[in-house]
Every structure is written in structure tokens, then in C-alpha cells.
Design a protein that fits this description.
By secondary structure, the chain is an all-alpha fold. Helix content is about 75%, strand content about 0%.
Length: about 140
């Protein structure tokens, strides 16, 4: 098995973990903060109910756990593959964000936004055709 093939077998599952956990964590945080409500003034006493709502929200803790998992996966990816490969590949998270925002947060996604996400995914496909290590295979 070639070095590039082994690298793909290690990086692709972690890229999938990254493109799911990162957006999921952010969507959970967004859902929690919408549930907590907005800050109406900058007085310290007005922060107490917001802080209490944040610290007792299950969605906040789920979001933090997902983002920690994303962070660990991303660090591992960067030990195995070039950043110029990892960052574009994990940009598939834009598709995940749009889907999760639609289903979990109930956001309307415009056709223009879907077109933009499609262009990003096409770029990710093109980058995915290159070697993750940036090293050319020897014949």
C-alpha cells in the first residue's frame, strides 16, 4: 500500500468527523443562545440570568463537547496531512452548516446561498484529487 493511500485512509474519516462535529457544535451553541435570549443592557446585574441560562443549557454543553471533538480531530489531521489539503477539505462543513441550520435552527436557506455552498463543494472535490501530504508519488 502506498504512503499516499495510507494517508487517505487515515485522513478521510477524520475529515468526516471534523465536518460533522464542528458545525454541529456551532449549531448547538446557536440554538442554546437563541433560547437564552438577548442581552438588553450592559449592567452587570443583567448578566446573571443570561449566565445562569448559558451554564444550565444542555445544548451549550453538547456544543462544547462537539467542538472539543472537532478540535482534537483537526489537530490529528494536521499531524498527518498538509494544511493546504486539510483546510479546503474541511470546508465541506459549509454544506453541513447549511443543512443543520435548516433542520435544527429552522433557518431559510436562499437559492443563492445553496449555489455558493455548491461552488465550495466543487472546490473541495478538486482539492481532494491531490495528495494529502503534498508529496508526489514516485513511480
Amino acid at each position: 500500500m502506498t504512503h499516499t493511500r495510507r494517508l487517505h485512509l487515515k485522513t478521510i474519516p477524520l475529515i468526516l468527523v471534523s465536518i460533522i462535529l464542528g458545525p454541529l457544535g456551532n449549531v448547538f451553541l446557536g440554538k442554546a443562545m437563541k433560547g437564552v435570549g438577548s442581552l438588553r443592557s450592559v449592567r452587570i446585574l443583567d448578566l446573571a440570568p443570561i449566565a445562569s441560562g448559558v451554564l444550565t443549557s444542555g445544548y451549550i454543553w453538547l456544543g462544547i463537547a462537539c467542538l472539543l471533538g472537532f478540535f482534537l480531530a483537526h489537530m490529528l489531521l494536521l499531524t498527518w496531512a498538509d494544511y493546504s489539503y486539510v483546510q479546503p477539505a474541511t470546508s465541506l462543513s459549509y454544506l453541513t452548516i447549511a443543512i443543520l441550520s435548516y433542520f435544527i435552527l429552522g433557518e431559510a436557506i436562499s437559492p443563492l446561498r445553496w449555489l455558493g455552498v455548491s461552488v465550495i463543494c466543487l472546490g473541495v472535490f478538486l482539492v481532494g484529487q491531490t495528495s494529502p501530504s503534498g508529496v508526489l508519488e514516485r513511480a
